[in-house]
Amino acid sequence: MKKICMIVGSLRKGSFNLQVAKKAAEFIGTRAEISYLDYKDIPLMNQDIEHPVPEIIANIRKQIQQSDAVWICSPEYNFTLPGTLKNLLDWLSRPLVANNFSSGTAVMGKKVTICGAGGKFATAGMRKNLKEVLEFMKMEVIGGEGTGIAVNPDAFATDKVIFTEEQLKELSNQVELFLEKI
Predict the structure, then answer these.
(1) 90 and 139 in contact (C-beta within 8 Å)?
(2) pLDDT for 146-161, tens place per residue?
(3) Dist CA 163 CA 166 (whole Å)
(4) Given a cut of 90, is residue 89 above it in pLDDT?
(5) Is the pLDDT of residue 111 over 90?
(6) Are 36 and 21 in contact (CB under 8 A)?
(7) How far apart are alpha carbons 164 and 179 in whole angstroms?
(8) Stated pTM of the model
(9) pLDDT of res. 101
(10) Which of 70, 76, 73, 115 is closest to 93 using CA atoms?
(11) pLDDT attached to residue 99
């Protein structure tokens, strides 16, 4: 069975993007094993502490390496990706062997797809920027900039995303394409 590691770009417990990731996981069902990456306690990327690699980073790399694919669902902060997600990606982009950039990374060649939930722009800036970063990291981006979901206006008061039929269809289509490619 294929393994998909979900990365949610928001650390908030009631995150809209966690709700979207869980909805994608529902569509995936039993066709793949889903895990969620916990990276809330990683240090800021700093070459002074890169080697030996901190244990938490080694564990995160291992979880990613043991997955067949990665699904990133993230909010948009100031029309780009959140700093916490960027920090994680900076760690994942570093070589596995100290100072040996030909040794590969935990994510090089890994299949990845993108989605995001946010305000009226449906995370368009974040998804565009994230796609560029992932491609630079030599990940295989499936589905381009992915699915953007403009959350219902009252979600900001209720912390509950109400999906439209069109949003559910787009997310379901993304799931099917991703499963086909992995």
Answers:
(1) no
(2) 999 999 999 999 999 9
(3) 8
(4) yes
(5) yes
(6) yes
(7) 23
(8) 0.97
(9) 85
(10) 70
(11) 87
C-alpha span between 146 and 148 (Å, rounded): 7
Burial class (CB in 10 A: 0-12, 13-18, 19+), 27: middle
What is the identity of the amino acid at 127?
R
- Cis bond upstream, residue 52 (ω within 30): yes
Q: Looking at residue 134, what is its pLDDT? A: 98
What lies within 8 Å, CB to CB, of 26 at 6+ separation is none
Residues 6+ apart with CB under 8 A from 137: 89, 92, 93, 105, 107, 108
Please give the C-alpha separations between residue 122 and each of 27, 36, 66, 132, 156, in angstroms, as whole numbers. 20, 22, 31, 17, 14
pLDDT category at 162 given cuts 50, 70, 90 is very high
For the record, the structure tokens of 132 come out as 């560029």
